[in-house]
Amino acid sequence: MFRIKKLDIFIAKQFGLLFIATFFICQFVLMMQFLWRYVDDLIGKGLSLDVLAQFFWYMGIMLMPQAFPLAILLSSLIAFGNLGESSELTAIKAAGISLLQAMRSLIVITIAISCISFYFQEVIGPKAFISFRQLLVSMKQKNPEVEIPEGIFYDGIPGSNLYVQKKDVEKGMLYGIMIYRMNGGYEDAAVILADSGRIQSTEEKKHMLLTLYSGEWFENMRQGGMGVSANVPYRRETFSTKRIVLDFDSGFDMAEVGGIASDARSKGLNKILHDLDSIREFNDSVGHHYYKEASYTTFYKPQLTEKDSIKAVKEVTKANCDFDILYAILPGETKQSVLQMASNDAKSAMNDLEFKSEYSDYLNREERLHWIEAINKFTLSLSCLIFFFIGAPLGAIIRKGGLGVPVIISVLVFIIFYILDNTGMKMARDDNWTVWFGKFLGTAVLSPIAIFFTYKANNDSVVFNIDLYKSLAMRMLGLRQKRPSIGKEVIINDPNYAQDVMLLGKISEDIEKYTREHSLHHWPNPIKVFFRPGDDQTISLISNTLEEVIEDLSNTRDKVILNEVNTYPILATHAHTRPFRRKWLNIMTGLVVPIGVFFYLRMLRFRLRLYRDLKVINKANRAITERIESKYAS
């Protein structure tokens, strides 16, 4: 039965305070990053404080589910890092409490946060998204002078179409201006051309003042009299400076929801699943319709009766000719007409296929976006648990609190998850990957990492021991380990020189015999290396005996002997025979050619190094033996 203990309350308090602080920090960072996408829609619009407050409020609600995982990761890292740094975690383990038992209160809290995250995405998030998009569209429509594009006609101003060739945002100037005004219909249309100009809103925000420079004004004139209207020649005006007042209410009004509600991000899970059935049914109906159209010829077909068609087929068969022959006998003008008709039919068919392809891609994209949003509600909630089981064990392993190392690790983990999740989402959205694979990519990669760190931390295994990885890398690359300096400051017993001389002599004899039986400087047989069992016990015995002699001679006061002892190399006892101790690993390595070549060359390097090391050992043995016999012989 689960009981709340003082330890659970203590760890929960440590985590809770840190979570609140880190959540607001993460929320602020995400909001600032999100704000840069819409900063152009806020600047220069004259928005009131209540509109800006609504903008940031909806933005914050939308980003809360993304801030939860990052805050959990950072707060759990700091909490358990502080416990480890202050040796409180050591005291907890000394009391017989495992790491998972110490984490159980936080596991419950994290599950609760995951449920809250899912609730935000299911209920609050869609409503916030609709309000945010509605507010954003309204802000974009408030001051159209900022939104006027380059190179296309802009119809955001009532009664006018405005074309701008180039804009200078810093100076607020427009260049290459063309305006079509149709207040009275096409009969009263006016065309205005200007080299440059400037557009501004008036103080009451009800009109727009357009100042034009170096241009011309063309306008049709209408006169009416006694109920009869007649057109007069158009009016042409050349000006150096011209000011035009355009009617435009730039006050802030909320835009209609319109198509925003059809976006997958504005729907809950039940609504998405319900709409997915409708989307799939509609997509299938469109596909069946396109298939039926493709099953019949849509080009030009002559209107022939049954008798005429049978007669035509018989004539073609009787003449034993094809369409090229029929085309060749046509008159010249008819040939051109036929070619033009065929070209038009081909272009029409190509345009029709392109339209159908784009429309089908759009429909499939909508279906994928709905699936992506449905899966995202679960993956984002599940990431809270995954990040906790990464952060808490890492904090217990590195035992560093504060905002230094934990922040760096948290940022690295979150960047990895962000890249994987966004890459998977984009590939799934563009139909390059399946939706399930793309959306679960980040979760599938980080879940084994979380399990690994939790297992290592719970069993007090070494994970971030730099010396361990350095030693492993040196063994993999065949780098030599240096022997530490031999010699003792305090000597209790003198070496047994007689026994050492005897053992050194035996080592030399074994080395001589070994070098005669084994050709270390020759290339070994790859079949024997990777696919046959065997090991070299002789070098292991030589190494063990040599280490015993070295340990005994380290008690000597003779500097000459110590100098010779320090020249002994550290022998690699197995690397010169096979890459691994296990037979199945050697077989797998031999079957994978690139890896097998690497380990074969590595083994050859160890053989040559052993060949040189044995020579060095023999030389040192002779020097030490001569020194002992000349000075310490009794």
Task: Tell me what you see in this structure.
The protein has 634 residues and is an alpha+beta fold. The protein is 62% helix and 11% strand. It has helices spanning 6-35, 49-85, 88-94, 99-142, 144-147, 269-294, 306-319, 323-328, 332-398, 405-429, 435-439, 441-458, 466-477, 497-517, 526-531, 537-553, 559-565, 583-591, 593-631; strands at residues 153-154, 160-168, 173-181, 190-201, 207-225, 228-247. The chain has a 6-stranded antiparallel sheet with strand order 1-2-3-4-5-6, with no helix packed on it. It is elongated and about 130 Å long. The two termini are 77 Å apart. The model is unreliable at 223-231 and 297-306 (pLDDT under 50).
SSE topology sketch:
Blueprint (H helix, E strand, L loop, with lengths): L5 H30 L13 H37 L2 H7 L4 H44 L1 H4 L5 E2 L5 E9 L4 E9 L8 E12 L5 E19 L2 E20 L21 H26 L11 H14 L3 H6 L3 H67 L6 H25 L5 H5 L1 H18 L7 H12 L19 H21 L8 H6 L5 H17 L5 H7 L17 H9 L1 H39 L3
Antiparallel strand pairs: 1-2, 2-3, 3-4, 4-5, 5-6
Shape: elongated
Strand residues, percent: 5-15%
**What are the secondary-structure elements, in order, as H or E?**
HHHHHEEEEEEHHHHHHHHHHHHHH
What does the average pLDDT come to?
79
Unreliable runs: 223-231, 297-306
**How many beta-strand runs?**
6
- Can you give the helix content as a percent range? 55-70%
Treating each run of at least 4 consecutive H or I residues as one helix, how many helices? 19
Radius of gyration: 42 Å
Going by helix content, strand content and strand pairing, the class is alpha+beta
Order of strands across the widest beta sheet? Answer: 1-2-3-4-5-6
Whole-Å distance between the termini?
77 Å
Biggest sheet record: 6 strands, antiparallel
